[in-house]
């Protein structure tokens, strides 16, 4: 379980940033698909 793992603030920040980057990249991919469809 992740809840049992003690994370340092630096590790937490790194995980949050990774998730934010993943979300941005998936959003960009979706936008590109939408733009291609509208051409």
TrEMBL record:
<protein>
    <submittedName>
        <fullName>19073_t:CDS:1</fullName>
    </submittedName>
</protein>
């Amino acid at each position: 379980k992740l809840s049992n793992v003690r994370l340092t603030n630096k590790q937490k920040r790194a995980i949050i940033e990774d998730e934010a980057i993943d979300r941005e990249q998936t959003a960009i991919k979706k936008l590109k698909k939408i733009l291609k469809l509208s051409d």
